[in-house]
Specification:
Elements (H helix, E strand, L loop, with lengths): L1 H17 L8 H6 L1 H10 L1 H18 L4 H12 L1 H25 L2 H8 L4 H10 L1 H9 L5 H8 L6 H22 L15 H29 L29
Helix pairs in contact: 3-4, 3-5, 4-6, 5-6, 5-11, 6-10, 6-11, 8-9, 9-11, 9-12
């Protein structure tokens, strides 16, 4: 099973390079072939979109550099809405495939290769859970490959990993797809980013962690036992002297 899966991924990866798909990961090549690719899409829209989807999922699975260029190309060819939609699902499916391969096939190799670099990721997910993964997806402080394979070694459920990854990568996907509208003007993928955009991403990444901390503190306060109220002092009952009886007045 493991050997078969590795062979399938290896064969797909080899086919990707043999057919020249890796050339589209270069910004200058994408700019030169933009009109050609758009004409192919207009001639066979469904087939072209399907091929692009599989190509992007493969790139995301193997974490080959160039995903930003493909995302900008998707925005230029398909339009921002459809391009972002295709990239969002293809990238998340590819990342989930890498997650599963790491968990069930390459776990020992990943620990040897990235052991020291994954300590921060493992600690963050163990402490913060899905909120930490969302932050890492939104602000890529840890390489894409390390996040995919490293999270596969944790106990995070697959469905949680999928939807948090898709939500966390969505803002960046829309940003680069929108930048594809002016593909010919860009000199590098980094031109799509500005100081304001980076600041917005950082703010969006911090918000879930801040909310989680606030909720935890509120829960801790509610769970903290209140100091027990002191019982009201009992008034000592008067003790009657023995032999004395209460006088009764008879009505004459």
């Amino acid at each position: 099973m493991r050997v078969g899966l590795v062979l399938v991924v290896g064969a797909a990866f080899a086919a990707f390079f043999l057919t020249g798909g890796h050339e589209l990961l270069d910004l200058s090549t994408m700019q030169e072939r933009e009109e050609e690719l758009r004409a192919l899409y207009e001639a066979q829209p469904v087939a072209f979109a399907a091929v692009f989807f599989v190509l992007y999922a493969l790139v995301a699975t193997t974490s080959v550099p160039g995903g930003a260029v493909l995302t900008m190309g998707a925005g230029a060819i398909f339009g921002v809405a459809l391009g972002a939609l295709l990239v969002s699902f293809a990238s998340t499916i590819g990342a989930t495939a890498a997650f599963l391969i790491s968990r069930y096939v390459l776990g020992d190799w990943v620990r040897r290769r990235f052991g020291a670099r994954l300590e921060k990721l493992d600690e963050g997910i163990r402490r913060e859970g899905a909120a930490y993964l969302f932050m890492v997806r939104l602000v890529p402080a840890i390489p894409f490959l390390a996040v995919n394979v490293g999270t596969g070694l944790t106990r995070m459920p697959v469905l949680t990993y999928y939807w948090v990854s898709q939500a966390g990568m969505l803002a960046g996907t829309v940003l680069f797809a929108h930048a594809g509208r002016r593909l010919a003007e860009l000199e590098s993928p980094g031109d799509a980013l500005s100081l304001g955009v980076v600041g917005t991403f950082v703010a969006l990444a911090v918000v879930p962690l801040a909310v989680k901390k606030i909720v935890e503190r509120l829960r801790a306060r509610r769970a903290w036992p209140a100091s027990p109220a002191r019982p009201a002092p009992r008034r000592a009952a008067r003790r009657r002297r023995p032999g004395r009886r209460r006088r009764t007045w008879a009505r004459r």
